[in-house]
Write a structure and sequence with these properties.
seven-stranded mixed beta sheet; four-stranded antiparallel beta sheet; 8 helices; alpha/beta; globular
Length: 246
């Protein structure tokens, strides 16, 4: 593989790091520092995040789904391919540059996804959309900052801590699904999902055939939380405390 050719870069809100889009031969990669967040050759696990989740929604002809993180569009494309014409897919992307890359140097990867009438792309922190109200979504798909052990923004940890899971639980409709992509396993996060009212399945998917396995948690909303979770400040039925630090 040849040396990286810089294509574009952008500051990351709340971080001293810079996100860079680079090209190796005919492959594209999004990087922060020396760490690669994603590339367009290793996409299978990102697609599985959508296909596994949407398969669980098969009985719902008009699901409303929130995707946190646009990335290179693999999760979005897989969701659109799996869902029917009455579905609604809301995509939250914090970084304006990533949105610009989707219609610029990476447009060939999106294959018209952003023009699909089922899609609403919103420049916002996905936390804000999760907090927009009770029972808003049938599924929330999070592919943000490499999972619970993030790389880019400390603020992203709020998606995966106790309050974040409480907010997600509140935003999901009964039986709704919180699906989380991660670059690696995290036993504490899996236990935390159960503590905050989710039935959890853990799946391992390779990024590409023969490649490193990534982790997907498929967490179904229940009405049960442990005493420790209830002790953080609100019940399952009540609204979570607003996150005023954003």
């Amino acid at each position: 593989m040849n040396s990286a050719i810089p294509i574009a870069s952008a500051a990351i809100p709340g971080s001293v790091e810079t996100m860079r889009l680079v090209r190796y031969d005919d492959a594209y990669s999004i990087m922060v520092g020396t760490a690669e967040l994603m590339n367009d050759r290793h996409r299978d696990s990102e697609r599985a995040l959508a296909t596994v989740t949407c398969a669980r929604l098969g009985g719902n002809p008009a699901p409303r789904i929130l995707i946190g993180g646009l990335g290179m569009g693999f999760t979005l494309r897989a969701a659109l391919d799996a869902l029917g014409p009455k579905a609604e897919v809301v995509v939250a992307e914090l970084m304006p540059a990533v949105i610009a890359w989707a219609s610029g140097p990476l447009a060939h990867l999106f294959t018209g996804s952003l023009d699909d009438p089922r899609v609403s792309l919103i420049e916002a922190d996905v936390n804000r959309l999760i907090q927009s109200g009770q029972a808003q979504y049938d599924a929330i798909l999070l592919d943000v900052d490499n999972g619970p052990k993030g790389l880019t923004r400390r603020e992203n940890d709020r998606l995966y801590d106790g309050w974040g899971l409480k907010r997600a639980h509140y935003a999901l409709r009964p039986g709704g699904i919180l699906a989380v992509w991660s670059g690696g396993p995290d036993r504490r996060f899996k236990k935390r999902l159960r503590r905050f009212g989710f039935d959890v399945e853990e799946h391992r998917y390779p990024a590409h055939p023969g490649g490193r396995r990534h982790v997907l948690w498929i967490a179904v909303r229940t009405n049960v939380q442990t005493e420790a979770a209830r002790g953080t400040g609100s019940s399952v039925a009540g609204p979570p405390r607003p996150d005023r630090s954003q």
